[in-house]
Amino acid sequence: MILASTKSLKPGQCLGKPVYTEKGFVLVSEGVPITKHMINRLLELGITYVYVEDERTKDIKAPKPISDELRKQAKEMIESSFKNIQNKDTLSQTFVLEKTSKDLMKLVRSIVKEIKANKELITLLSDVITYDNYIFSHSLNVTLYTLAIGKKLNLSEKDLEVLGLGAILHDVGKMSIPTKILMKPGKLTNEEFDIVKAHTDSGFEILRNVMTIPLIASHCAYQHHERLDGSGYPRGIKGEDIHYFAKIIAVADVFDAVTSNRVYRNAMLPHEGLEILYSGVGKLFESGIIEAFRRAVVIYPLGLTVILNDGRKGVVSKQNPELSERPVVRIIEESGQVLRETYEVDLNKDLHLIISECDTTFAVDQNGEKS
């Protein structure tokens, strides 16, 4: 399969992976020829990229960081926990979270176990989902990225569990923000942005009163928008005053925000998200955390069409552990001609080759013709 921009889809093409609603229902099935109406609907729903069937890359399948069963369980538990504290006073919120905190920690332990057992680089791009409420999926995505970073940083299992719980609950304060502001498609006013920023204070106030939740998790909610140079919020603290776990979550939070479909912005590709993170190294984010992230997360996803510095065009077919920027590429076009017989180059071995560009408008049909 090939990763393609939704805007480049043509009627008659078949999706290589289904598109799901956040509830897990199939919106568009794989293998079914899509229509113009389906394409327009995907665009309306903010789906930026999809996987398209392609004969020459049909063996390329993106692995999942955790099992479908655990992902479903995690989404349901996060949504239930968050919704149960919505529109309640602080005392009621504390009571609800004290009841659910043990289940949340049990969930985190299950995620930690699967993340540690998974030898693959982590990618979430393979799950094409239209979001009814971004907060719940974002909380899970940030947890997966956060734990992948923590794993590369060789954190202890106990630290990973506390870090994971802090990641799951980092945006719990957003349940106090009116939906019309949170899901606003246009630019926020200054007053609206102030309301959004207050979610860090709200989250801290909710969590710090829950005796069954480690205080560090409360600080993750409080500090995940703080930055090394003091340009963050809510307090504008700097450097070592920011808890290390909050610094990790900050990286995961930004990456998922820019690489996910949002009501007000199209999703970036992972390598574009990484460029944003690198632009803030030493100023906004700690370099060691960014490097751990780079080693843990897929930068060029399987199925992505890339152009090499020698002009050859191919599709990412395999990942090299610890070297996500140097994957194996299946060459499908050379000197402007679509190849009848493909072959692979390993960028970790051919060090003179680099990926110079990504192309999500290119696809090859089963006859080897450009489409």
UniProtKB/TrEMBL annotation:
Domain of life according to the entry: Bacteria
Positions of the HD-GYP domain: 113-309
Database matches in Pfam families: HD_5 (PF13487)
SUPFAM superfamilies given in the database record: HD-domain/PDEase-like
InterPro entries attached to this UniProt entry: HD/PDEase_dom, HD_GYP_dom, HDIG_dom
Protein name: HDIG domain-containing protein
